[in-house]
UniProtKB/TrEMBL annotation:
<feature type="region of interest" description="Disordered">
    <location>
        <begin position="134"/>
        <end position="154"/>
    </location>
</feature>
<dbReference type="InterPro" id="IPR037913">
    <property type="entry name" value="ACD_IbpA/B"/>
</dbReference>
<keyword id="KW-0346">Stress response</keyword>
<comment type="similarity">
    <text>Belongs to the small heat shock protein (HSP20) family.</text>
</comment>
<feature type="domain" description="SHSP">
    <location>
        <begin position="27"/>
        <end position="136"/>
    </location>
</feature>
<dbReference type="Pfam" id="PF00011">
    <property type="entry name" value="HSP20"/>
</dbReference>
<protein>
    <submittedName>
        <fullName>Heat-shock protein Hsp20</fullName>
    </submittedName>
</protein>
<dbReference type="InterPro" id="IPR002068">
    <property type="entry name" value="A-crystallin/Hsp20_dom"/>
</dbReference>
<dbReference type="InterPro" id="IPR008978">
    <property type="entry name" value="HSP20-like_chaperone"/>
</dbReference>
């Protein structure tokens, strides 16, 4: 079944990256595996912890694709083993997290079946800038208006 593109309108040119992001999130696993926690470890620091018991460092991939943090895990089957009962299946997963603008991944570590991904978010300082008002596209009118300043009427 083909999906109809949401961004076919000529008014939405250049928004195809949003459509790709939506597709990526839709393809991500929805079964809740692996479980995860997101915790704040400092004023500007976060940590995502995923329970990935049975996965080694070589089975896991952590990537940033556009503004998404994507974690993939794939266990390899040992073909030489003969199982009499197999209750622990080798499985694969993909978990995605949308990152806000400016958030950076500072590192990842695997410890006792837990994958820790450390993030830092920058402190945003408010920016104030002056916008000049021009009369009929010519030189600036009387005085520029300072948008960020409090003005008092006399």
């Amino acid at each position: 079944m083909n999906r109809i593109s949401l961004f076919n309108s000529p008014l939405l040119l250049g928004f195809d990256h949003f459509e790709r992001a939506i597709d990526r999130v839709a393809k991500a696993s929805t079964d809740g595996y692996p479980p995860y926690n997101i915790e704040q470890t400092g004023d500007d620091r976060l940590r995502i912890t995923l329970a990935v018991a049975g996965f080694t460092m070589h089975d896991l991939v952590v990537q940033i694709e556009d503004n998404q943090l994507v974690i993939r895990g794939k266990q390899t089957d040992d073909r030489e083993r003969l199982y009499l009962h197999r209750g622990i299946a080798a499985r694969q997963f993909q978990r995605s997290f949308v990152l806000a603008e400016g958030i950076e991944v500072t590192g990842a570590s695997l410890d006792n079946g837990l994958l820790h991904i450390d993030l830092v978010r920058p402190t945003v300082e408010p920016k104030v800038r002056r916008v000049e008002i021009r009369a009929n596209g010519k030189s600036p009118a009387h005085q520029p208006i300072d948008i960020g300043a409090d003005t008092e009427k006399a």
